[in-house]
Specification:
Blueprint (H helix, E strand, L loop, with lengths): L1 H12 L6 H9 L1 H33 L9 E2 L9 E2 L1 H16 L1 H28 L13 H12 L5 H6 L8 H30 L10 H8 L5 H33 L18 H17 L2 H28 L7 H27 L3 H21 L16 H14 L4 H37 L1 H4 L7 H9 L5
Helix pairs in contact: 1-8, 1-12, 1-15, 2-3, 2-12, 3-4, 3-10, 3-11, 3-12, 3-16, 4-10, 4-11, 5-8, 5-10, 9-10, 10-11, 12-15, 12-16, 13-14, 13-15
Membrane topology: Multi-pass membrane protein
GO cellular component, one term: plasma membrane
Pfam families: AA_permease_2 (PF13520), AA_permease_C (PF13906)
Length: about 475
């Protein structure tokens, strides 16, 4: 929810299709924005792969088969990449076609399907709690507080839907009203339902015997309600289809916006004149997602997905602090140094807490790093004047709310395994090399061209909205 609030101010103040890429580019520059964008694209690709493979498992249970029965097992490829999933590709094709068709048709589908899905969720909660066994909650929690944080970091990607929603701000009629309601409201509802379903699931069956591929369907079979697994599987399929649709809609517009800057090939920025949607970007993301979904098991994907998500959310919180406290020509050099120092101390102390938590959890470490976090936030709060106030809607309790968001994201990052950090580092290094060889030059040329067309004065007012929004939409129109 802290990350949602940070996103909300940007989505209202800078309502363009680029989401966090656009926000980071405005405040921190092209390089940071591109590195973040590359990780967000990876996040979307892996997210689609995770959901489509889960869709395949629930579809198998709906057909009265085992969760892995429809997958092609190739022993020579190993257990991590040898469970080939053609059904996952089929569902990605179907959803991509629906996303390409038009956003209005997709919205109608989502609305109708969401009503059905809510009924299924209520059925799961009520029927599951009727058959609850409190003994399944002993011991609670079985892996202690550390287990809770580790699980939170792994499942964090389940909440990234609001990032996709923020990319639709350019197509929202009244962003100042609709974006805060949509983002904060949907996150609150999602969190409540997620917790209710998790509680119900753990009370139905011991955590030791959970089926990781189709947990809810199998749970109803275990408690003797075999007929209910078909209702559950159907509801799960609907829910995951909606998730895929929202993700593909958001990621296509995300890639479109990045390609407008030429940091990515401009071919992806093309919007079909008849349909009014970014077909090239949608197809490109579909192809990449399909390759990942076809070969890779869920366990390999989850941690890598969450590390990218947490990294981006931390960057957005930092960017909000920069936006509020730094404006060229307004912020003095002295206050600029104070701002940089405060942010470095906030990030450093948060990282210290994270490392201490992961190593041994000694109270001495907390006694050192936590006061540093508090003092650095207090110093920013009282020692640096805010240089900019939001025009339409702003995050409350700045700098405390974004600072707390940074701290939580840092702690969760510290619980993820080293192998995932290595994969994350390799991908980020690849992005760095690509940016130096291609993205930097293409972005520079495009910016100069845009300044010539729109006027340098108007282009430099990007954080004010208005002129640049109209200029970008004129050059690269998208379905409104």
């Amino acid at each position: 929810m802290l990350s949602v609030f940070c996103y909300t101010e940007f989505a209202v103040e800078i309502p363009v299709a680029g989401g966090s890429f656009a926000y980071l580019r405005v405040e921190l520059g092209d390089f940071v924005a591109f590195i973040a964008a590359g990780n967000i694209i990876l996040e979307y690709l892996i997210g689609n792969a995770v959901v489509s493979r889960s869709w395949s498992s629930y579809f198998a249970t709906l057909c009265n088969q085992g969760p892995e029965d429809f997958r092609i097992i190739v022993p020579s490829m190993g257990p991590d990449y040898g469970h080939l999933d053609p059904i996952a590709i089929g569902v990605l094709i179907t959803v991509s076609i629906l996303a390409i068709y038009n956003t209005k048709g997709s919205s109608i589908f989502n609305y109708i399907a969401s009503v059905f899905h809510m009924l299924v969720l209520l059925f799961i909660i009520i029927a599951g709690l009727i058959n609850a066994n409190l003994a399944n909650y002993a011991p609670f929690p079985p892996f202690g507080v550390r287990g809770v944080f580790k699980a939170s970091a792994v499942l964090f990607f389940a909440y990234i839907g609001f990032d996709a929603m923020s990319t639709m701000a350019e197509e929202t009629k009244n962003p100042a009203r609709d974006i805060p309601i949509g983002l904060v409201g949907s996150m609150a509802i999602t969190t409540i339902l997620y917790c209710a379903l998790a509680v119900t699931r753990c009370l139905m069956q011991s955590y030791k015997t959970i089926d990781i591929h189709a947990p809810f369907s199998v749970a109803f079979t275990v408690i003797g309600m075999d007929w209910a697994k078909y209702i559950v599987a159907l509801g799960a399929l609907k829910g995951m289809t909606t998730v895929l649709l929202a993700s593909i809609l958001g990621q296509a517009r995300y890639l479109t916006h990045i390609s407008r800057t030429h940091m990515m090939p401009p071919w992806f920025a093309h919007v079909d004149e008849k349909i009014g949607t970014p077909i090239n970007a949608t197809v490109g993301m579909f192809v990449a997602s399909s390759v990942i979904a076809f070969f890779t098991k869920l366990e390999i994907l989850a941690n890598l997905l969450s590390i990218s998500t947490l990294f981006i959310f931390m960057l957005v919180a930092i960017t909000l602090l920069v936006r509020r406290y730094y404006v060229i020509g307004v912020t003095t050099k002295r206050n600029q140094i104070k701002l940089i120092g405060s942010i470095v101390l906030i990030v450093g102390s948060s990282t210290g807490v994270s490392i201490n938590w992961e190593v041994d959890g000694s109270w001495i470490g907390y006694a050192i790093f936590f006061p540093f976090w508090v003092l650095s936030t207090v110093f920013l709060w009282l020692g640096v004047p805010q240089a900019k106030k939001p025009t339409f809607w702003g995050v409350p309790l700045v700098p405390w709310l974004p600072s707390f968001s940074i701290a939580i994201n840092a702690v969760l990052l510290g619980t993820i395994d080293m192998a995932s950090f290595i994969r994350f580092g390799i991908w980020t290094w690849f992005l760095f090399v690509y940016y130096l060889l291609f993205g930097l030059h293409a972005s520079y040329d495009t910016t100069k061209e845009s300044e010539a067309k729109c006027g340098a004065k108007e282009w430099n007012k990007v954080e004010e909205g208005g002129e640049k929004m109209e200029c970008l939409q004129h050059q690269f129109p998208i379905d409104m």
